[in-house]
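Hey, sorry to bother you again with one of my protein questions. I've been staring at a protein lately and its backbone has me curious. I owe you a coffee for this, so here goes:
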Amino acid sequence: IRALASTDERIADEIKGLFDEAGVTGWRAEVEDGRVQIVGQGSARDARLATALARTVTGVSEVHAP
């Protein structure tokens, strides 16, 4: 369980970095067991970009977005 938690933290940190680099605002990623939920209130364009970026991260098994 501890390994999953640290993996989820790494995934979340990597996704946050990608969002920051790409200028994605209003959205964040919640990660549990490699599953990513994109949450927040940003533009539809940024939501699509956030989803695409999250899918590129190693360890992500699925991505759900609004």
